[in-house]
Specification:
It comes from Oceanihabitans sediminis. Keywords: Sigma factor, Transcription, Transcription regulation. The protein is mainly α and 180 residues long. The chain has a single domain, classed as RNA polymerase sigma factor, region 2, helix turn helix motif (Rna Polymerase Sigma Factor, Chain: A, Orthogonal Bundle), CATH 1.10.1740.10. Helix 3 crosses helix 4 and helix 5 runs antiparallel to helix 6.
């Protein structure tokens, strides 16, 4: 794996940009795919959002200042793209974000790429009841095991706020899963 500073320099150079970008995609596409997938739910929608994320990264790499790690910057773009996708989808369907989310979860059962069982489906339904920020924090911590320090950089908030959001999310999910 390339050193991050070297990779960024290669991404900003016209001679090496394309090859460096292929390396970047190779390094991060799977992690970003699952990050986005936990937000938008559908495989096909995830592919679209992932593609848009990488297009934005490619077009905006020259604006990357290096204040954070490149993966934090890309996760922030992916998160914003996923949220924008949900908002646009809700608007297109003339529903609320929550209703659009419920629809996406109901469609999970027929998604050939969804390998979860009934318990996994119930967990996804529980997660969908959370406010959007808690959903993102829960998914990043629970499914991707992202450290609070890194999450704080990605979501541009404090570790304390994230820990509180995660704790509240876990409690709400437990309550949802234990009701009859």
């Amino acid at each position: 794996m390339l050193n991050e500073t070297l990779l960024i320099n290669q991404l900003k150079s016209n001679q090496t940009k394309e090859q460096a970008f292929k390396e970047l995609v190779s390094l991060y596409k799977e992690r970003l795919y699952w990050h986005i997938r936990h937000i938008v739910k559908s495989h096909d929608d995830t592919d679209d959002v992932l593609q848009n994320t990488f297009i934005k990264v490619f077009r905006n790499i020259d604006n990357f200042k290096g204040d954070s790690k490149i993966y934090s910057w890309m996760y922030r773009i992916a998160t914003n793209e996923a949220i924008s996708f949900i908002n646009k989808n809700a608007k297109r369907l003339q529903t609320t974000n929550e209703e659009a989310q419920d629809l996406a979860i109901n469609n999970l059962q027929s998604d050939v790429y969804f390998e979860g069982d009934e318990i996994q489906l119930k967990l996804q339904k529980a997660i969908a009841t959370l406010p959007q920020k808690q959903q993102i924090v829960f998914n990043m911590r629970y499914f991707q095991d992202i450290k609070y320090k890194d999450m704080a950089e990605i979501l541009e908030t404090s570790e304390g706020a994230l820990k509180a959001s995660y704790h509240i999310a876990v409690k709400k999910i437990e309550d949802y899963l234990t009701q009859d």
